[in-house]
Design brief:
- This protein is mainly α.
- It has two domains: 72 residues, Rna Polymerase Sigma Factor, Chain: A (Orthogonal Bundle); 77 residues, Winged helix-like DNA-binding domain superfamily/Winged helix DNA-binding domain (Arc Repressor Mutant, subunit A).
- Helices cover 80% and strands 0% of the residues.
- The protein contains seven helices and no strands.
- The chain is elongated and about 80 Å long.
- The model has no long low-confidence stretch (mean pLDDT 85).
């Protein structure tokens, strides 16, 4: 069995580990054995397990290569720069939210920042869900008319 596994994996340590795992698989699969060539049956289990291990190893290599490529492709300086820009935009939006009328600010803050549902906000404010929908609609209109996209670039 070890030779069959080794022929697939081509690594002694991995083949030894796989052989131990195969013994466990064989033991747990004994009730499924149908008395048709025991040696063939255990060899098939061993080879299939070795193939699965090789596929997993190959997949891990590909994932690591992609991850490494993404880190190398986008340098650390780019990541830091993007993070700084993101934080500056967040600060600007929070400052500009202070300009929004208070009744609109509450629904904007609740829906977009705290990610509350209409129902949650309605129950907190003791109003109907439709009232929250209307306030949010009007708040969006207010923002569209008073804010310009260029202010945030």
């Amino acid at each position: 069995m070890f030779r069959s596994i080794y022929s697939v994996l081509k690594d002694q340590k991995e083949a030894e580990d796989a052989a131990q795992e195969v013994f466990i698989k064989i033991y747990t699969s004994l009730p499924k054995y149908e008395n048709q060539g025991f040696k063939t049956w255990i060899t098939r289990i061993a080879v299939n397990h070795a193939i699965d291990m090789r596929r997993k190893k190959q997949r891990r290599k590909e994932e690591m290569a992609e991850e490494l490529e993404s880190h190398i492709g986008g340098s650390l300086a780019d990541d830091v720069e993007l993070e700084v820009i993101k934080r500056e935009r967040q600060k600007l939006v929070q400052q500009r939210l202070k300009e929004v009328p208070a009744n609109y600010r509450d629904v904007i803050y609740g829906f977009y920042i705290q990610e509350k549902s209409y129902q949650e906000m309605a129950s907190e404010q003791n109003v109907q869900v439709k009232t929250i929908e209307t306030k949010l609609y009007r708040a969006r209109l207010w923002i569209k008319t008073h804010w310009k996209e260029e202010d945030f670039l």
